[in-house]
Design brief:
Helix 2 runs antiparallel to helix 3. With 85 residues, this protein is mainly alpha-helical. It has three helices and no strands.
């Protein structure tokens, strides 16, 4: 939810870049550290363990889809505004 702050105020290129950076850090670094630590513990309930594994897999697929859309938007914005020049 931290990246939502930047998403709601993403009016300039700088806030859009901040959103992208925060989204990347939280969704592709921090989340996987938490899941890794949880899955490497001894499960109290094996059913909950497999449910967490399933939902982390689903969440990973959704993160990849959203990330691909974000990259497409950023590349299109870059092409449209010729940021390199």
């Amino acid at each position: 939810e931290i990246s939502t702050i930047f998403l709601n105020i993403a009016k300039t290129i700088y806030t859009k870049i901040l959103f992208f950076i925060v989204f990347t850090y939280i969704r592709f670094y921090l989340y996987y550290q938490i899941i890794y630590k949880y899955l490497n513990t001894t499960p109290n309930n094996i059913i909950h363990y497999y449910i967490i594994m399933l939902f982390s897999l689903i969440f990973t697929v959704l993160n990849c889809i959203w990330y691909k859309k974000m990259l497409t938007i950023m590349f299109n914005y870059k092409k449209m505004h010729n940021i390199n020049k």
